[in-house]
């Protein structure tokens, strides 16, 4: 053995403790668009996890909301159980809206995870519960949630307006008494109900009041649109003013002179336009409210079909 040989003692490298990470993802439906969003969420968060030193991906929790069963969030609850068992130390999710359905739910979930010593990271907002004051976190979450709700509301309204303008809104084919949808979803006349609609218009133009029509329908044993024996005055009144019976549909009409959409010849009419206009004129004539200089005033007498007769 060489007398010049030197031997150095090299201690073992300390094992770096890897923190156990769980990914949580949620989408609101199982539509193709939402499932694509889910794929992107999982892919992005997995990439973030594997490229972060000392992080170890232990599980991925995915909830797909679909009707009542989707509201239980089984995977989210499984994640909470794993956090309680110390199987997960860090939870990462795309953003606050994916973590909970509203501000209250988000804050309740964060408090539960805080009790288990679990760190939560919202990737999109850049929020980390380990370095954010609790009160500040609450304030931030509430502000973001409010902004998201306002944005979501505007997006929904924009969607309604776009589909209404393009004529593709399903609301154009929403059925009412006298109509049904065919196999393509288009409105077609349901004759057994349509004959009652025609009868109501005929009775009104024949001189009967709303109450008189109500009594006549009940006398003949004609069921209401919901299958009841007793008709309400409002149901009859609304039917007499429903433009859908002449093939017209109005969407987004609030009656305050804002932009709205009108579709003519949208579907087969049950009532002729002439008869419909005659009913509207008769309703104005029979109204016991007249407009004067001081606003609306009631007439001294109310219309009665008995007087008419």
Task: Provide key terms for this protein.
309 residues, single chain, Hect, E3 ligase catalytic domain fold, alpha/beta, elongated, two-stranded antiparallel sheet, Rossmann fold
Per-chain topology:
Elements: E1 19-27, H1 32-50, E2 55-64, H2 74-84, E3 90-93, H3 96-99, H4 103-115, E4 119-122, E5 127-128, H5 134-166, E6 179-181, E7 187-189, H6 191-205, H7 210-219, H8 233-240, E8 249-251, E9 261-263, H9 273-286, E10 289-292, E11 295-298, H10 305-308
Parallel strand pairs: 1-2, 1-3, 3-4
Antiparallel strand pairs: 4-5, 6-7, 8-9, 10-11
Your description of this structure?
The chain has two domains: 19-157, 3-Layer(aba) Sandwich (Rossmann fold), CATH 3.40.50; 174-308, Putative Large Serine Recombinase, Chain B, Domain 2 (Hect, E3 ligase catalytic domain fold), CATH 3.90.1750. It is 42% helix and 16% strand. The protein has helices at residues 32-50, 74-84, 96-99, 103-115, 134-166, 191-205, 210-219, 233-240, 273-286, 305-308, and strands at 19-27, 55-64, 90-93, 119-122, 127-128, 179-181, 187-189, 249-251, 261-263, 289-292, 295-298. It is elongated. It starts with 18 loop residues before the first strand and ends with a helix. The model has no long low-confidence stretch (mean pLDDT 80).
